[in-house]
């Protein structure tokens, strides 16, 4: 049983008033949604305010990043305990923008994943190949390296403790989405890797797709058997677009409809 998760990654956007306005609109638009997890990932500065605004709603909170040490002289960093204190349930780890712009490595992501889990945060572990890597036929080897290193010595007590996001770098913010078939091919490969690490629990680990997800492509993406939700960037900044994504429609019987009650 995999309950779909839709995560809105706001990246470096919105002051506190803007964030609260978006939450207010979303609360009106998605309050009836059931059987899906809706997660918002605002910037650090808005976490606490958004957390309070989400009380009693069907949405939960994620942070976009954190550091793997508990505390100390790490100027500019934020710890897992601080994220829990601000009301987070989830944290994104290893987003490609962090890998590309802030030199995050698979080893660093691994430390973050282990600390998130031991702290009680659910890591959303991002993997994905660049265009050059795809074109040179390295997609699977890149995904294998990123995933196996990021999950080295990782233990989970329940499959819902861990979420993976496949975000092909060439599809992020470019308007170019992977076709459902291209995404499913990699998702199924990821599920196979997860089986080697977590055995049967892998069947229940959610694997999200990210990269130019929008109202026009979410329904088709969600019909694929191993796509269990989405990590949404640009379209999560607009209440109407994000609400439509959250309310994705899959044709009856396309998937095990029990997941979508
Ligand atoms: P876009 O949806 O803007 O392509 O961003 C995807 C992403 O990076 C989500 O983490």
Describe the structure.
The chain has helices at 16-30, 44-54, 80-85, 96-101, 106-119, 131-135, 139-150, 180-198, 215-222, 239-246; strands at residues 5-9, 37-41, 59-63, 90-93, 122-127, 163-166, 206-210, 229-232. The chain has an eight-stranded parallel beta barrel, surrounded by six helices. The radius of gyration is 17 Å and the shape is globular. It contains ten helices and eight strands. The protein has one domain (10-246): TIM Barrel. Helix 1 (16-30) crosses helix 10 (239-246) and helix 5 packs across helix 7. It is an alpha/beta fold. The longest helix has 19 residues, at 180-198. The structure holds 1,3-dihydroxyacetonephosphate (13P). Residues 9, 95, 167, 172-173, 210-213, 231-235 line the site of 1,3-dihydroxyacetonephosphate.
